[in-house]
Specification:
The chain is globular. The chain folds into four domains: about 130 residues, Rossmann fold; about 150 residues, P-loop containing nucleotide triphosphate hydrolases (Rossmann fold); about 70 residues, Helicase, Ruva Protein, domain 3; about 60 residues, Arc Repressor Mutant, subunit A (Orthogonal Bundle). The longest helix has about 30 residues. The strands form seven sheets. The protein has a five-stranded parallel sheet with strand order 2-1-3-4-5, with helices on both faces. A five-stranded parallel sheet has the order 9-12-15-8-16. The chain contains 18 helices and 20 strands.
Length: about 475
């Protein structure tokens, strides 16, 4: 988040004309536009005619003094940060002013350029963050939108509420949910609503990193630390200093590396590979996993002590099949984004397409929905999306269970009412594999990672092997 000094306005309030002039000259030399007032009432008039970004005010003044000015601003809900300038400095007074009068900071006279410059910049950034938070909260209340998250279903409303609760804190967050549900978007929303929003948001996928590079990626390395380390490199913890680090698929991180991560989380200090000193870092960690937590712990894939350190606050994302009422709003938001990305002008969905989207199982969740729509937007280019714009492999029907309902056939697979979702999902993966031999393309179609696909294939093979009669021939499992 950035700002232009030339566009920022500072209001200087002081009854001493010489002091007012001196402070104004310093602020002007820093590149800010200046407004002045000799006491509180005049300051309120100035604020009423033209908003400012920061207020620099004396405390002891005739008429409405600085104390009453700050109190009035707070009662009005004005979020303009105020820096108090006074010649009567003490630690007790500073704490009282900042806490009781809701001032941004306390500064002794005479003001020094070296101190005032960074302070004004921080104050303006703080106001921008508060305004952005208010905007996001208004957007959430009126549209069911929080950052890149969209939904008006009960489960999404509950999710938004949890995000709003945890975002202003410094607590670590562990996000659970199936692949493709939007865990990184939840982490980004937490970052955007936090006091760290002006800092960096760094995301890393633990499953995508080779084990040999993971330590360097997280903690950095010094020149010559290993073959190929031709220069010093900062790791993700350093890059995320004063911001948020998102560790996706934490259950895929090698257990020895989890022990090193735990120590960094406890000490807030990292040591680069090949380094001889530790570096302090101020980082909030948000982690995510698509594995069932207890299963990962029991299989020794996730250290229990690391789980407790990360799971200060837990958020579970519902799969898309459990919140299908959000699909129309999600599709509309995705189409707007995809139009811009691909220079297209798609306006809506045909009723048959809408029905197919609503009836689909969505094993790849929102990621799969995005992939399906992106292909359709590119093919359609403009106007309405019709059935023939959808991917050829798309569309396993799912029907409500009812007495006497007939099975539904698709390709070489027959579905009956009452099947477990896991069975339908596995059958759909097999069907897609049969039609598309390339595993990377299958993962893209399903909206899941290649590693997740490989895990599902391994599970299928293990189950078929267990079901195969001893000494019998291999037999293709069919979901009936």
């Amino acid at each position: 988040m950035t700002f232009q000094r030339e566009a920022a306005r500072v209001l200087v309030v002081d009854d001493d004309s010489e002091e007012r002039f001196a402070v104004s000259r310093i602020v002007s030399s820093l590149g800010y536009a200046i407004e002045t007032a000799s006491e509180g009432e005049e300051a309120l008039e100035r604020l009423g005619s033209a908003p400012v970004d920061v207020i620099l005010t004396d405390l002891v003044m005739p008429g409405m003094d600085g104390f009453q000015l700050l109190k009035t601003l707070h009662e009005r809900g004005d979020v303009t940060p105020a820096v108090v300038l006074t010649g009567f400095g003490s630690i007790d007074k500073a704490v009282s002013i900042v806490h009781d009068l809701h001032a941004f900071w306390f500064l002794e006279k005479p003001a020094q350029v070296a101190v005032l410059g960074p302070l004004l910049e921080r104050a303006i950034r703080n106001k921008q963050l508060m305004l952005e938070t208010q905007r996001l909260q208004r957007q959430l209340g009126s549209q069911g939108v929080l950052g890149d998250l969209v939904g008006t279903s009960q489960s999404m409303r509950q999710l938004f509420s949890l995000i709003e609760q945890v975002a202003p804190t410094s607590a670590s967050v562990l996000i659970g949910g199936e692949s493709g549900t939007g865990k990184e978007k939840v982490a980004a929303a937490i970052h955007q609503l936090s006091q760290r929003a002006a800092g960096p948001f760094v995301a890393i996928n633990c499953a995508a990193l080779p084990e040999s590079l993971m330590e360097s990626e997280l903690f950095g390395h010094e020149k010559g630390a290993f073959t190929g380390a031709v220069a010093r490199r900062a790791g993700c913890f350093e890059l995320a200093h004063q911001g948020t680090l998102f560790l996706d698929e934490i259950g895929e991180m090698p257990v020895p590396m989890q022990a090193k991560l735990l120590r960094v989380l406890e000490d807030s200090r990292v040591r680069r590979l090949g380094g001889d000193r530790e570096i302090s870092v101020d980082v909030r960690v948000v982690a995510a996993t698509n594995r069932p937590i207890q299963e990962a712990i029991e299989k020794n894939l996730l250290r229990e002590d690391l789980y407790y350190r990360l799971n200060v606050f837990h958020i579970d994302l519902p799969p898309l099949r459990h919140r299908k009422e959000d699909i129309p709003a999600l599709a509309a938001a995705l189409i707007r984004n995809l139009n811009q990305k691909n220079d297209c002008r798609v306006t809506d969905l045909h009723a048959e397409v809408h029905a197919r989207l609503m009836n689909h199982l969505w094993p790849g969740n929102v990621r799969e929905l995005r992939n399906v729509l992106e292909r359709a937007v590119i093919v359609a280019r403009e106007g309405t999306i019709f059935n023939h714009h959808l991917p050829p492999a798309f569309g396993v029907p799912v029907i409500e269970r009812s007495a006497g309902a007939a099975p539904v056939g698709y390709g070489s697979i027959t579905f009956e009412p009452g099947l477990k979702l896991e069975e339908v999902e596995k059958a759909y993966i097999k069907l897609t594999l049969e039609r598309t031999k390339n595993k990377k393309e299958v993962a893209r179609i399903l909206g899941i990672s290649l590693r997740t696909l490989q895990n599902r294939i391994s599970e299928l093979m293990a189950e078929e092997s267990a079901e195969r009669p001893s000494g019998g021939s291999a037999k293709t499992a069919v979901c009936r």
